[in-house]
Amino acid sequence: MNNNLTALQPYPFAKMATLLANSNRPQALSEIKLGIGEPKHEPPQFVLDELHENLDRLSEYPTINGLFDLRQTIAHWLERRFFLHHVSPESQVLPVLGSREAIFSFVQAAVDHSDDQSPIVMMPNPFYQIYEGAAILANAEPYFVPCLPANQFKGDYRSVAADIWERTQVVFVCSPNNPTGAVMAMDDWEYLIRLSDKHHFIIASDECYSEIYLDEPPIGLLQACAALGRDDFTNCIVFHSLSKRSNLPGLRSGFVAGDANLLAPYLNYRTYHGCAMPVPTQLATIKAWQDERHVAQNRALYREKFALWQSELGEWLDLRLPAAGFYLWIKVPAKFNHDDEVFVKALFEEVGIFALAGSYLSRDVAGQNAGKGYIRVALVASLEENAEAIRRIKILLSK
């Protein structure tokens, strides 16, 4: 077996299971799950209907690059959403089986070992653990860029040394960020794009939370490229998904878009990888990307829950409303010694709430863990469950 498999760390939820192995929630209280970012809102019925009506097409082998109608629908959506002049459905869009699968496989195709330098895959810290695993299994070195309050919880790319940039082949950006909710501004994108021109690394932007925002829609990487007159999206690639936008995590439907010179060899890789999207899924996906009403309704539900937490717990906890996404990145109160493990354990054992320790989403860099002292709360449960969670947290904090 690949020796690099032994370098993979347990997933955050496995660490939580170990932490809570000898813990029990109060029997009188139901468990409220706010730890896992799995959307619980109703998926759009018209998408499910389209899927059901085309189940007979499971008898067909799908092509790796998908139906032209799907790629064209995605291209048109990108143009509308990110104010792009033209996206080619032939060469700049590729359907994938959810962003997670694509993020992992793209790194395997992108990392080059042809020179003597050890390649680096850069990522924010805290981060989505697939970035790290993909780097390790591509035999590259993960390099963690801290996302701290001093930089509005965005990656501090300006602090990275020149010799690191020389070895960097892929830079992962998560905007909106999981778990901090921070978004990249135009000057942040421009800084990275200019660095990419100088050092020739790929910018890989994970934008699967882009359609859940409180005020203004976040600027995407391709949008920043277009604003700089770079309609060929040189060395830039984005990942999108229906999981969060349309509450369809089980559909496993997303896409990669950007530089045609990156997508062509990646398509060739996928031909061997064997990960074509079934035709019924493609047809249902077309319907989802063509409709914005259900997305606006979804956004409104999250806004209502964020407002509830802020109004009810804003004076009890150090709450910072995110620019986008559906997570609260909460600083642990002094009452719990600013210890995220202590806090999430107390939440579970005393009031039956499952949250996620922030240090499990981060790695130690120079003796500092960017997630330590924070917890991630996913506002995926119903409004009623969120209200009940708030009531219980008040009880815990008032003890």
Briefly say what this structure is.
This protein has helices at residues 12-19, 45-53, 68-82, 99-110, 129-137, 162-167, 186-199, 221-227, 242-245, 260-273, 279-290, 293-313, 340-351, 383-398; strands at 32-33, 93-96, 120-125, 141-146, 168-174, 202-206, 236-241, 254-258, 327-331, 353-354, 356-357, 364-365, 368-369, 374-378. It is α/β, with parallel strands linked by helices.
Give the helix/strand layout.
Elements: H1 12-19, E1 32-33, H2 45-53, H3 68-82, E2 93-96, H4 99-110, E3 120-125, H5 129-137, E4 141-146, H6 162-167, E5 168-174, H7 186-199, E6 202-206, H8 221-227, E7 236-241, H9 242-245, E8 254-258, H10 260-273, H11 279-290, H12 293-313, E9 327-331, H13 340-351, E10 353-354, E11 356-357, E12 364-365, E13 368-369, E14 374-378, H14 383-398
Parallel strand pairs: 1-10, 3-4, 3-5, 5-6, 6-7
Antiparallel strand pairs: 2-8, 7-8, 9-14, 11-14, 12-13
Question: In what order do the strands lie side by side in the largest sheet?
Answer: 2-8-7-6-5-3-4
According to DSSP, the number of beta strands is 14
Overall CATH architecture of the largest domain: 3-Layer(aba) Sandwich
From the spread of the alpha carbons, the general shape counts as globular
How many domains?
2
SSE-based structural type: alpha/beta
Contiguous low-pLDDT stretches (5 residues minimum) are: none
Total of DSSP H or I helical runs spanning 4+ residues: 14
CATH class of the largest domain: Alpha Beta
Biggest sheet: strands, sense, closure?
7 strands, mixed
**Average of the residue pLDDT scores:** 96
Radius of gyration: 21 Å
CATH H-tier superfamily of the largest domain: Type I PLP-dependent aspartate aminotransferase-like (Major domain)
- Portion in strands: 5-15%
Q: What distance separates the N and C termini?
A: 51 Å
Remind me, CATH topology of the largest domain?
Aspartate Aminotransferase, domain 2
Write the element-wise H/E pattern from the N-terminal end onward. HEHHEHEHEHEHEHEHEHHHEHEEEEEH
